[in-house]
Amino acid sequence: MRIGVDTGGTFTDVVAVDERTGEIFTTKTPSTPANPADGFMAGLGKVGAAKAGAEVTGLVHGTTVATNQLLEDRIEDLGFVTTEGFEFILEIARQSVPDGYGNSYFWVKPPRIVPVHRVKTVGGRLDHLGAEVRPFDEEEAARVARWFRERGITAIGVCFLHSYANPEHEERMRRVLEREHPEAVVSLSSDVLREYREYERSVTTLVDAAVKPTMRRYIANLSERLRMPYSVMKSNGGILSAAEVVHQPITTVLSGPAAGALGAALIASTAGHPSVITLDGGGTSTDVAVVVDGEPSLTTEGSIGRYPCKIPMIDIVTVGAGGGSIAWISPEGTLKVGPRSAGADPGPLCYGKGGGDVTVTDAHVFLGRIPPHLLGGEIPLDRQAAREGVEALAAKLGLTPERTATGILEISAFNQCNAIRQITVKRGLDVRDFPLVTFGGSGPLLACRLIDILGLPAVIVPPDPGNVSAFGLLTVDVKNDYVRTHVTKNPDLGVLAGIFAELEGQAVAALEREGFTSPVCRRSADLRYYGQAYEVRVAAPPGPLGEEWRAEVLARFHEEHERLYGYAYRDDPRHAVEWVNLRVSGIGPITRPAIPERPGRAEAALTAQGGRPVCFDEREGWAERPVHQRADLRWGDVVSGPAVIEEYGSTLPLHPGFTAECDSHGNLVIRGHGASEPGTSTTEKGQSR
């Protein structure tokens, strides 16, 4: 049996796959923010109770420990060592002003990740090719190390100028720190991100140093309780053993969302939808990604909170629009929803655990759109507490409770739509060309409104949507990424071959330590037209490097540049192409679980097993609506709204005028008023929305 455990802000999700029969078992348990390992072990306990005697052959974990530390700005006792004369690199940054501040005089820079008094410099200088200009100052390095030791600063990031070309000075600094300050946890930029651009490389290294002590404690605690090896999900769409991930914890910062996007991609591709938008709705946030031809989009321009991180990661946009998002009144008297969340503890009002704010979940409970319990009755919900909270908020706004509750959900839906537009429209994609795969405990709740607002062709809700991220953990390969900056307009193919060989050697060695005997290496390169500030990444062919290889990479660059920006300079000698970064991804492939087909209905037609009063529109008011159990649906069944479809970990409110059809793999395909098949949207349809 292989097990995936995804720790979210509200629930910890578990999926177990029987490798002999293909049977998939899912369960959930409340998360434990004070010690996430407690929720992890509780989830495993449920699997053990249900599958007693099964042998665990693989365990993969998606964790938010590093992510939450960054999002909550819990960064203390962090030090920074850089090249003499560059102590203000964090203050200067990119000199860019965020959107919304047209005049920089009105923008106050947020605090640096390391305050200036904890930034120390060391003499020594390399040029951009890695040649030594001034020798490393060993005596000054020792004084710096002792300064950090005397003040109890144990997490230290080191980033020297041009160390991407030659790591020698950084490695000497590490040896000095080991000698003078042995308690220190050190991150070197040449280990974390061997790529140019000093500010991003510095911050990425410091983020790694900041989360390293927390992740090491968490991994050690979990390993001691598990007493078995396990792997951790990485932001790039791969996994790595826990023993290795403690050396590069920054790679886990989008662990859970990355697993969700990959799980949804496999589910959608199996159902015949290779290109989709994925939406993971949880208790705290909503994570959105785009999948094209079965592969989620990747980026190295991501950020976690306010910290840019140039590590390879799945391109995900996150907004504070989850089930626990709090509804509040602004100083101007308008209704707002999120980004602050009630989380798992104390949670929404209806949890009955002391929460004092109305949340999105409370609005759903009040309107009857979700049942009076979660997880099949394991967590009862206090509908009266939700009602009283909504009524009190409505009185302050001067609205009816129904109008207030539907308004909360409408704002939450538009917050999710804005995230979808960021990941599609801002990247030159037409949202109407992509069906949406929505999952997570709260993901399906607003599916019908998203269809109406965005003009989506369809929304696909997988079986057990609350466990898709945990399922995704079992679908991913072991993957490591390596990069080297090499800026040139006239590349020497022998030099390029040497760099690729070195990177591939590192990748193969790491995968062999993980037990893979036949790892796969994939090359890519970042190129740009000379004079441009940023690059375009393209895949590079395998095999020996010759003129045909070079021409193929250039052709791919021109094609990708034209796709992204609408123009290219294929045959214009005035615009030379500059090579910037060479990359290698080392992949250890695994066997993915098969998604079984569902049988069709052999017995009588589908009928609802009950009903309850539900309000879908405050103008139409309350009415008794049929309630279907997801487990009763068979291939070909169609449920017409208004209705509610319930299952163990999630609920789908099906609004009037919408239908949900069960496909051959058990997915519910939701379509609205005259919606066309996915991929056939029209301008008229978009205008009618």
UniProtKB/TrEMBL annotation:
Residues 2-180 form the Hydantoinase/oxoprolinase N-terminal domain. Residues 496-665 form the Acetophenone carboxylase-like C-terminal domain. Residues 201-481 form the Hydantoinase A/oxoprolinase domain. This is Hydantoinase/oxoprolinase family protein. It comes from the Bacteria. It holds the Pfam family Hydant_A_C.
